[in-house]
Amino acid sequence: MKKINFNFSAGMKKEDTRLEALKDGKVPLYSDKRGYGFVNITSGIWKRQVSTERIAITEKGCVVQETEETITWENLNHYNYGGLIFRVNVEKPGAYRVEVKTSSVPEQTSVAVSGMMADRMTDVSPWDAAGLVTKSNIAVWKDNTWCFDFVTGSSYIEIEVEPFLTKDKKPEGIIPEVGIAEITITELETIKRDNKQRPVIFTLGDSTVKTYIFEEAGMSGWGQVFDDLFDLNQAEVINYSMGGRSFKSMYCEGRFNEILMKGREGDYLLVQSGHNDESTGPEAGPSARFGRGATAETYEAWIREVYIPAIRSRGIIPIFVTPMTRIDGNKTTEGNIVLNGFKNSNCPGIDFPRIMKTVVSEYGIDVLDLYEESIRFIEKIGGGAASAMFLSIEAGEVPSKTNSGSYANGNPSGSSDGTHYKEALSKQWARILVTDITKQQIPIASYLKPVVKEAIESGDWEGVYPEIAKDIRTGENAYYRNQIEKLIKLDVLSKDDEGLFHPKEVITTKAFTEALNKMWKINLPLEDGIEPLTREVMGGILYDAYVIKFGKDRNGKYRKPKYMTDYNETNLSPHDPLYDPNLAGESAMYYPLTPWNKVADTKEINKTLYFKVSESYKLGLIRCEKGIQRGKMINGKELEPKKFVTKEKAAKALFFMWVLPQNIRDENDR
């Protein structure tokens, strides 16, 4: 395979191996004829400028000394610390091992290739929230030599060497000198798959494709449930998606590159991007060095100049997915669907789905138009059901967290999220995608489960999703659709013989206790008969179950899961790899916002149940329902202890309790 070496120093090797221009005392500047050299501006989609005039030729290599006056800093994502940029014409897209020996020490040197983020390239954190998709292609230092395997979609590779400085604020004081002593670039072969290895279907996208953990319970991405539709004996499905990502950020942090280095010829890559490409502002917008936003022109360029050629260079088969529509969660109602995003958005108002379809079609590459299909689906089920399936959260619905703390009292953002969504909707997006894959006769359709193939052909998905009751699909009955589907899937609640759930019916005390026993594998005593469940009785049952499940310590204090202890008024740092910039809001706590002594109707509680109900409330297991609202971090002030509990309200309470004992790091779709 092809190997190129450039020696900038005079001491470590024989003099005749040093670049000819350096022997003459001249800094080699790039030219097409030469095919290598230093440049003062990068060739990538986002341009960064440096000065080649300050490069000094020394015995140890080519070096640059920057000062406070020659560097710039505006924010965490937009800075330029100068340094050196060396461009090499490698003649064709493909994978290359890049080795850079620096004249400066690693602790003071930042090395990257072709516009990537140096700190993310050396970061060893897993790609997913559960820590199951480990990082294997990591930039490593050995003494003064930095090494990284990189896939370029162009015929150029640019080595960028900058001073290693803080990103949180503008650096002050002496800027360390940085320099290059040697560069070696070695072409790498594509990886072939032997007959014993299953093909891999990679999925790559943002939070709407991501695999979520129980810490984030309530949210789901289509990439999380996509593998459920495939025969995993025939193909492997791996989801590399993460919240807040765009075409640009997936490239810059090395997420896209990891797939290309790991994939084999004949593997598949489904890529969705668009939501975060809409980002604007000085830190997130397209003008920021590492901002995730895009213009119409740069969005097209990422597809055309980076993703398509890089994927094809590795023998991997690309499939592009247009991002699903968003809704305005605060304005969408049963009779009024308000679409949001892309051509239905004022800022920036760019039709990214159309651009993707136009560009990809030029190359004869398959594209799945989830955008248009998602609009059709939402129009079919109605605004009320759609809003319920997106991330509209009310108090007592789920104990998990967002960037800004707990969801237990409602959404800290103070709005109904029309971008992120629940598992009930992620399954529908996955269904739409595999149906389109089959319709277009894309080869991965052959790896679908037989029951999925039958569902696509017949249009009847009962065999794939038996948990979807017939009477929770539209209208007000769909309000707690997500909880109902999950509990039916877990065999905790059930449909009747006609496939109906009857969400507005009152549940019996016995049925609720049986469901809780089955879900938590405990043995609460069962009442005889068909006594309807009241809220005060439910509070008592939830307390008894909690004590059995979690118990108390030697001091008589309740043992508590992390949902109750770790996320109270604690904001997640933007530096955290799991941070999703779209999930920010007011700092939020788990425990009820209305203290027990402020609840208006506690005197109505049966005296024999008072202690258990009050403890259940203080533990956040039961909350005031009257006056709560989805999309608002608000609690009611009336417990309504004598009110009967419907099956849908029972499902809400059971879902909350189902999450509580779960390991926060486990994937939440089990």
From TrEMBL:
Classification via SUPFAM superfamilies: SGNH hydrolase (SSF52266)
Protein keywords: Hydrolase
Name assigned to this protein: Uncharacterized protein
Family membership: Belongs to the 'GDSL' lipolytic enzyme family.
Disordered: annotated segments: 399-420
UniProt keyword S-adenosyl-L-methionine, yes or no: no
KW Plastid (keyword) present: no
Any one GO molecular-function label of the UniProt entry: hydrolase activity
Segments of skewed composition (Polar residues): 400-418
